[in-house]
Structures are given as structure tokens and as C-alpha cells.
């Protein structure tokens, strides 16, 4: 499975180039999440604009990314979900675990708001 990685100063956008997010794809993405997080990026945006459906393993890999980002004070955001993926997350009772936006611009705004909050917190300490 191929994916694109668009690195920015405070976040990275990862976009799987596949129709199906399954266990094989999830394994490759998990490695990428860990690499980016340990490399100092605490904010990850997963753009699922090209993904049409996912299985249970595909959905669960997001939980690892969420934990990695949260542990470092960052955010893991899903964007570009079609209705089937949104419904699957709700059915699996996982939608409340994820930050979900309609667009990358919304995800960026969420990240910058969180980063500003963290910067202010550090200044006060």
C-alpha cells in the first residue's frame, strides 16, 4: 500500500492511496505514525479522502496514532471521511475517540489552536 506524507512545521498529513484500509494497510500506517511521532511531530492528520471503506483493523490503527499524539500533547485528526467510514466509526463506537474534520483546513486550525494553547501554558510555567 502506498501513501503520501506531507510534512509541515508542526504537523504531518498522511494520505493512504488505497480504496480499502485493511490490516495490511494499517500495519504500514502504524509504522509511519510511530516514525513521525518519535521524530518529534506530535500532530498527525490522516486524510482518508481516497479511502472508500475500512475493516476493523483499519479502524483500530487510528487508536495507536491517537495515543501517540495525545501522549506528546498533540492531536490525531481524521479528515476526508466518506459517509460509510463515518457510519462505521459510529457503529464501532469509536467516533468519540477521534477528532474528525471535513477538510484539511479545519484540521490545521484545530492544530494551531492546540499549539497556541500549549505555547501559552509553557510560558506561564
Q: SSE order in H/E notation?
A: EEEHEEHEHEH
- From the spread of the alpha carbons, the general shape counts as globular
Instruction: Give me the side-by-side strand order of the main sheet.
Output: 1-2-4-6-7
Radius of gyration (CA) equals 14 Å
Number of strands: 7
User: Regions with pLDDT < 50 over 5+ consecutive residues?
Assistant: none
Strand content range: 15-25%
Approximate helicity band: 40-55%
How confident overall, as mean pLDDT? 92
Number of helical stretches of at least 4 residues: 4
Secondary-structure-based class equals alpha/beta
Report what the structure shows.
- Helix 1 runs parallel beside helix 2 (56-71).
- The protein is 50% helix and 20% strand.
- It is of the alpha/beta class and 125 residues long.
- The chain contains four helices and seven strands.
- The radius of gyration is 14 Å and the shape is globular.
- Strand 1 (3-7) and strand 2 form a beta hairpin.
- The strands form two sheets. It has a five-stranded mixed sheet with strand order 1-2-4-6-7. A two-stranded parallel sheet has the order 3-5.
- The protein has helices spanning 23-38, 56-71, 83-91, 104-124; strands at 3-7, 12-16, 20-21, 44-47, 53-54, 76-79, 99-101.
Amino acid at each position: 500500500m502506498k501513501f503520501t506524507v506531507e510534512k509541515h512545521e508542526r504537523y504531518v498529513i498522511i494520505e493512504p492511496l488505497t480504496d480499502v484500509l485493511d490490516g495490511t494497510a494499517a500495519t504500514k500506517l502504524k509504522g509511519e505514525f510511530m516514525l513521525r511521532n518519535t521524530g518529534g511531530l506530535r500532530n498527525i492528520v490522516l486524510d482518508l479522502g481516497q479511502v472508500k471503506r475500512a475493516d476493523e483493523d483499519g479502524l483500530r490503527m487510528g487508536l495507536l496514532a491517537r495515543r501517540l499524539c495525545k501522549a506528546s500533547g498533540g492531536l490525531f485528526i481524521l479528515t476526508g471521511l466518506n459517509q460509510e467510514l463515518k457510519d462505521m466509526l459510529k457503529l464501532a463506537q469509536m467516533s468519540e475517540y477521534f477528532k474528525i474534520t471535513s477538510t484539511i483546513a479545519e484540521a490545521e486550525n484545530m492544530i494551531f489552536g492546540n499549539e497556541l494553547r500549549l505555547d501559552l501554558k509553557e510560558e506561564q510555567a
